[in-house]
Each structure stands twice: as structure tokens, then as C-alpha cells.
Amino acid sequence: MAIHHLYAYLCVRDARAAMDYYTRAFGARELFRLTEPDGRVGHAELDLDGHTLMLSEEYPEMGVRSPEGLGATPVTLHLHVDDADALVAAAVAAGGTLERAPEDHFYGERSGTVRDPFGHRWLIGHAIETVTPEEMQRRYTALFGTPPGPG
């Protein structure tokens, strides 16, 4: 088996509103949508600068729930961009909630976190330096003030 792509597939309560938000916040462009006779969006695809984001509305009868339906999300989507500060500001201006303002991190990235109006968490960052895995571990360990353990 060869894996050729990995897509984020989001479930939201209001697909039309979500698609509008992702367009305003991230510059997404709608590729297409499949709408049921009652208006529920069963599938939609957006282009985010050459990357596909898929989404659908909730299907509680099939166990498909949005973060709003669950009351939480265990998933964070990471957007790696040219200017994290600008995109975090755009996402908040479009209606997102700032969870963590952009700041520089030990792993060589400047990033911040926004929760979109549909409950999905977006970590938005850009590179500020190249850090080897070994240096990253050293810095990570230093954050905890303990020497590295075996392994």
C-alpha cells in the first residue's frame, strides 16, 4: 500500500459558515460541495494554497460529530505559513478566538493558536531557525530543568 495524500477532514455544524470563515481567515477557495435536498452539506473541499481541506456537517445518526457536538476537540491542525503573526491576526479578525498569541519557541518556530468558530484548534506558525532533533531535545529537556533520561 502506498499512501499518496493525507487530508484533514473536519466536521462542523454549519458548513456554509465554516467555508466562509476559512475563506476569510486563511484565503481558502471552494473547490466543490455536495448538498443534500434538505440543505445539509455532506461533503465539501477547499483549497488552501495547494492543500485540500475537506469538511462535512454533522451526521449524529452515524456517530459523526463536530467539536461543538462533542464539547471538545482532541485534534490540532498545524498551518505552516510565511507570517504566523499576520495569519493569526486574520483568523481572529474573521471570528476566531485567540488561545495563545504568537511567540518564539524552542523548536525553531514562531507560532500562536486560534480556535475557529466551529471548535477546531489551529496552530499557526512559521520557521525562525533550523533546529536538529538533538538540539530540540536538549532545549525541551532544559524547559523541565531535569537531565535527559535514557533512550
Main sheet attributes: strand count, strand direction, barrel closure:
4 strands, mixed
Strand order of the largest sheet: 1-4-3-2
Principal-axis shape: elongated
Oligomer state of the chains in this structure: single chain
Distance from first to last alpha carbon = 31 Å
Class from helix and strand fractions: alpha/beta
- The succession of helices and strands, N to C, reads EHEEEHEHEEEH
Content of β-strand: 35-45%
Average the pLDDT over all residues and give the rounded result.
Answer: 94
CA radius of gyration is 18 Å
Query: Which percent range fits the helix content?
Result: 25-40%
Compact overview of the structure:
The protein has 151 residues and is α/β, with parallel strands linked by helices. Helix content is 25%, strand content 36%.
Topology:
Blueprint: E1 8-12, H1 15-26, E2 29-35, E3 41-48, E4 51-57, H2 67-70, E5 76-80, H3 84-93, E6 97-104, E7 109-115, E8 121-127, H4 133-144
